[in-house]
Amino acid sequence: MNIPTTITELIQRANALTGLTLSDLATQQNYTLPENFQHHKGWVGQLLEQVLGASAGSKAEPDFPNLGVELKTIPLNAKGKPKESTFVCAISAIIEPQWQGSVVQKKLAHVLWVPIESESDIPERKIHQPILWQPTAEQLQTLEQDWQELTDMLTFGEADRLTAEYGEALQVRPKAANSRVVRETVNSESEITKAIPRGFYLRPSFTEKVLQTPTP
Amino acid sequence: MNIPTTITELIQRANALTGLTLSDLATQQNYTLPENFQHHKGWVGQLLEQVLGASAGSKAEPDFPNLGVELKTIPLNAKGKPKESTFVCAISAIIEPQWQGSVVQKKLAHVLWVPIESESDIPERKIHQPILWQPTAEQLQTLEQDWQELTDMLTFGEADRLTAEYGEALQVRPKAANSRVVRETVNSESEITKAIPRGFYLRPSFTEKVLQTPTP
DNA sequence: CAGGATCCAGACGTGGATCCGT
DNA sequence: ACGGATCCACGTCTGGATCCTG
Lengths: 216, 216
Fold this sequence. Notes:
The structure is a homodimer.
Chain A: H1 7-15, H2 22-29, H3 43-52, E1 70-76, E2 86-90, H4 103-107, E3 111-117, E4 131-133, H5 137-155, E5 170-174, E6 183-186, E7 192-195, E8 198-202, H6 204-212
Parallel strand pairs in A: 1-3
Antiparallel strand pairs in A: 2-8, 3-4, 5-8, 6-7
Helix pairs in contact in A: 2-3
Chain A binds a DNA duplex through residues 34, 37-46, 48-49, 56-60, 72-73, 75, 83-87, 89-90, 118, 163-165, 171, 173-179, 183, 196-197, 203-204.
């Protein structure tokens, strides 16, 4: 699929998916449905990238670079609410100095959310109405406040105490192939230490509100 | 092949290769001889890693970590002299402060050289007598002096002027998939710029002398 | 002939996320 | 339910070097 050239085109393509099943999309894209979703965790996300014409695999750029829009699939439980947290980005060894311009701020500035039924792993799960979102003033404030708190802990040598329990909307959790993976980091004493790679995630309670945010 | 546990064992294994052909070794290791050596440039080196039990592919470590020995194959022309320069290591974005402890110093501290006839690409090319080498005082001085000169140019903003022409024994040359590859580097003004990745290489005139260094 | 350009294999990192035990 | 652990795809990087023009 070629890339969408305007926001309008992107919205139209996304809306056209509403009600379709993963099976429909897989057939359309000539994708093979994996037998086992325990492996292939990113399969749905990559399918949707194809379907919508996102430039898959590119780094340090939004999924739709020309539009400045990020694509996120979001799994829904039987009640239509987010089933899982949403990975935002990895936390690099170099701590960013401020919210403005940070990777989290940029990633979440403009997001196309595609909700997908995920109560079971059957291929007939349906796509719900996608929503193109920009954070409200209130949401922005929450995100910035969380980001600042978490970043402060990373900066001021409290990285070890920083568990997933901190943050109202944004949290920090492991992000690696497994718990044996380590990477070098620089702590507040400028010493080089080893730590497990982590990332920023959005809590389901936050994305639930996102899905209810009226389109501006 | 399991790893050699002593220097003596390594020397014995290496000496046992003298006079054998690449074809012999490929058969022994169940390696397929590539049809075309223009591609598969590293094939011979990797074959020898297998043959001698080097821990292939490991990073930031000697090929024989327990022995602190590095393995290098070296191509010989019809006159029995080195046909090519020898790649030592990549130059990272962070310039090392001093010779002692530098990657070049560590890589060249103890090397097992395996000379291989390379006038043509036929599989019957023979292995010559390997030599386990440690730099002589004179060689060390040359290497350190070159390293210091080249490193100074990298440090003091003369990286652009640093061509392969500098250095008596050690030189700096491109090291990348192709000339379009760029990476971010920090120059002397702490500005971020793009430059082609480069590496340290030993000139053939130096390795020729190495092959003549008497074993201590 | 040698400086600049290039090629492959395999490890590693990043972006796509969900799994799963307490 | 949720915090910590984990899985795949794929692009990039690194280590093995030699190729190839002027």
